Fold each of these.
Amino acid sequence: MKSKITPTNQQRELRDDDFIVSKTDLKGRITYCNRIFMEIAGYEESELLGIQHNIIRHPDMPRAVFNMLWETLKGGQEFFGYVKNLCKDGSHYWVFANVTPSYNHKAEVVGYHSVRRRPRPEALQIITPIYQEMLAAEKKAGAVQAIPASSAILKTKIAEFSKDYEHFILEI
């Protein structure tokens, strides 16, 4: 079970050559995490393996982003996105994430593989206010309508910048 961590305003920065790698099973439980992941997030391997990947989910992240991630992965596609993660000590770090389905020898999805790297600061200047607006819409709409309300805002923002989500994320 996820412990209650109080977010702080402290931000950790990934180095240019840092790549955070993790693998999960179909339910999102961590089956592998690299040294950089543990170093940045502040957890020991034993605290992560077998635990839901959302242990690092920051409350500033709109639920609609994770809904889109799971819908994309269930469709057999890779997902790209900017994610604000929560460290064990309450600090946070931003990543540009690429998440892909992992397949076995029978071409069946058996889990997910994620590689995250340092995001471009210019992209965060664009995505942060969008996420703040989405989060506000989720809170205003209430639990049942949170994801549709937040998704509608994202769809509008994407239309202003680009033709679809993937192009938007890769272009900002």
Amino acid sequence: MKKTRITLNPADPVSMNLGRVDLARVDATTEADVSRQAAADEAEAVLDTARYARRVRKRLGLSQAQFSARIDVPIDTIRNWEQGKRSPTGAAKSLLKILDKVPELALAALH
């Protein structure tokens, strides 16, 4: 994403329009554009979740098989999470957050 720095000067009304919504661009946006961007956002979110699951496991220093055994989840599920084929939901998502924030306590509780 390109970042642009601008300086707003309240004394100069023209500068106050900088950085505002480009209404012409918004009007030119089609439903297909919106759908395409939504699909791209969803794909990125899936990849973020996959990277997060992998990062948590690697931080714990466990292989997929070891991680699977420690959290009592099938190894295929771990693989699917890390490959972005599936995303953890509900309790699994919460467990990953806990493992990420307080790994020692979480692993001790699971032992």
Amino acid sequence: MIIDHIGIVVKDMQKGIEHWNDLFGYKQMTEIVENTRQKVNVVFMHKDNSQLIKLIEPTDETSPIYAFSKKGGGLHHLCFKCDDISTQLSEFKTKGIRTLAQPEPGEAFDNENIAFVYAKQGLNIELIDTDKKANIL
């Protein structure tokens, strides 16, 4: 597995994009995509020779990240690209890693499946098995 991106919760998407651009030199890579299942808007940011950053903004108060965003947001997850999500989830289960969200289509990944697990050290881990990103600019 390799790290695909780092997920950061932001309170305001436009301000988040500007912040990552002004402070770190990251450029917007995709249009903002709404993930209706997770009730978030996401955008990928890129910088040459660096990891992708995915900014995540809640769409409303029922979003699972709403309270976190109101506290200022921050690191939400690391995303690892694996060969096959189902196989990886089975392997994680044998190692005591808890699945938070079973595989389901992720709009930010052109509806390819994504899944979330909760790893030790309090880390949310997103799993993907695709290189696709939706709405690349």
